[in-house]
Write a structure and sequence with these properties.
It is a single chain. By secondary structure, this protein is mainly α. It is 70% helix and 0% strand. The protein has 13 helices and no strands. Helix 1 packs across helix 13, helix 3 packs across helix 7 and helix 10 runs antiparallel to helix 13. The longest helix has 43 residues. It is a multi-pass membrane protein. Belongs to the binding-protein-dependent transport system permease family. Keywords: Cell membrane, Membrane, Transmembrane, Transmembrane helix, Transport. It is found in: Cell membrane.
Amino acid sequence: MGLFRKYHGKQKYKGILRNCIIGIVLLAIAVVTLFPIYYMIISSFGAPTEAGGASYSLFPRTFTLASYRFFFDYSIYSVRWILNSLIVASSVTVCNVIFASLAGYAFAKLRFPGCNFFFFMLLVAMMIPYQVTQVPLYILMANTLHLQDTYVALIAPTLVTCYNVFLAKQFFTSLPTSIIESAKIEGCSQPGIVMKIVMPLSKTILSVMAITTFLGEWNTFFWPFLICNTEKMQTIQVGLKNFSFANTTYFAPMMAGATVSALPMFILFFALQKYFLEGVTVGAVKG
């Protein structure tokens, strides 16, 4: 009995020690992950005059909202940048959720001529680096279609992405075919099956698709920077570069703009975090 208690005590001690080590490691990872966000927010409350030579201190010398006022007063298009990003990201997100989910359902549950070939081409397209397509895409939009500095040019290239179609297809493949067959026997049409059965069962994957698409489109810089020549049509991420010059950088106002631009992402994530977390764990548990 004494040996058992001694062994049990050692195991309990090892368990506590292991949990402490895991907790310390996770805390360190959390600090490293959250520190850039903290530094962005705390720097945004510094005075605009601190910007040129950023002190990189953990706290600003003065705690003020002047940098936020500077950001909105700096250009007449400051609010327009946020509105442009909101229009582009929302449009791309809605279109991807609708069209990518329908395409994914077609690949997963319908059989049509060339189904496997088109899906194979989709996988091939996913392997092509994003940067490779930018030059021909710019020539098409700017020189051929003359759509430079328009919402169409900002939205059209990512109206439906291969990744979202692939993501939807993989999820719909896991749905029981028997449910769809039962609906067909009951006389439900294909649009009815999609709207009344498939989509309600797909809230998780559609929410994950909406979050990742919106965040990706909101944060994108290269394509809006390439296709937009005027300040009026710039998105918020491109607009922030206007605070950086050859001789100085308005650091605090830039951080204020970055903080403002991050708010929609935080709101979207916390509004849909339930579905997002469920989407991360889909397929992790069997039975």
